[in-house]
Amino acid sequence: MLEIFQFDFMIRAFIAGIIIGIVAPMIGVFLVVRRYSLMADTLAHVSLVGVAIGLLTKVNPVFTSAIVAVAAAIGIDKLSESKKLFGESVLALFLSGSLAIAIVIISATRGFTIDLFSFLFGSIATVSISDLYFIVPFGVLVMLTVVLLYKELFFVSFDPEVASSYGTSVKTYNLILAVLAAVTIALSMRIVGILLIGALTVIPVLTAMYLSKSFKQTLGIAVAVSLFAVIAGLFLSFYFNLASGATIVVVVLVLFGLSTLFSNK
Questions:
Q1: pTM summary value
Q2: 216 Cβ neighbours under 8 A, 6+ residues apart
Q3: Domain for residue 70, yes or no?
Q4: What per-residue confidence (pLDDT) applies to 88?
Q5: How many Cβ atoms from other residues are within 10 Å of residue 80's Cβ?
Q6: Which domain holds residue 74?
Q7: What was the pLDDT predicted at 114?
Q8: Please, which of 26, 74, 226, 256 could form a disulfide with 204 given CB 3.0 to 4.6 Å?
């Protein structure tokens, strides 16, 4: 089985996959606690605009997607704070609006291409060295930020009103979390795909909730589940010629199903 590592593109895929397998549930656990699970799907659709811009301008789409997703995350956070719109309404606005903008940009240029489909559904063969230049440092930055701000992010996510009464800047940490989510989504596109990254962000956390007894246990188990799914999914997609993103998500779903059975017993 180790002949898989004779291929440079698989080594790149595993490096990117391991980074993504760690950061996606690290951010997802806070989104789930805040009942903001749809944030991942919304930012994924927003990232499609960045992909379209990157393909149009010949700039690395991971870079342009990160910029667009971060801008959208800031916009979502500001509109949610205004209290004039419900949180789910803001997410629906950005999700449908960004998808329409992306389709207009794509249709106005050269239409749907192989490169675009690799971003939509993930492709292990398309992870390039330039992609790793973004994925590795920014992935590590997301991890370090979560570790350093863990208590504040947990406090704000779990009970923002109490956090505010203790003098914690809820707005600041909500914005930080939104930006971290945006960066994570942009980094994950090559392996998991825009249409499936929401599943890798949320389902490992849901799986961990069936098996854990504390928030820290949930975070640890979610990362372990995600890493196993990514590594197993990459092996399966390579040897059976399957789409990497979909295979990873199927593995996560199987683990979720097993966790429910184990929890019931």
A1: 0.87
A2: none
A3: yes
A4: 72
A5: 20
A6: 2-260
A7: 56
A8: 226
Answer whether residue 265 is part of any domain: no
Report d(CA 7, CA 9) in Å as an integer.
6
Which CATH number does the domain housing residue 96 bear? 1.10.3470.10
Counting the structural domains of the chain, the total is 1
Residue 155 scores a pLDDT above 80: yes
* The two structure tokens encoding residue 191: 């392996």
What was the pLDDT predicted at 120? 79
CA separation for the pair 230, 224 (Å, rounded) = 10
Q: HSE on the CB side for 120, CA within 13 Å?
A: 10
Query: Is 197 a domain residue?
Result: yes
Give how far Cα 224 sits from Cα of 26, 88, 170, 219, 243, Å: 11, 29, 29, 9, 22
Band (pLDDT 50/70/90 cuts) for residue 22 is very high
For residue 227, tell me if it sits in a domain. Answer: yes
Which DSSP string corresponds to 66-129? HHHHHHHHHHHHHHHHTSSS-HHHHHHHHHHHHHHHHHHHHHHTT---HHHHHHHH--GGG--H
Number of Cβ within 10 Å of residue 220's Cβ equals: 15
Q: What is the pLDDT of residues 57-74, one digit of tens each?
A: 888 888 899 899 999 988
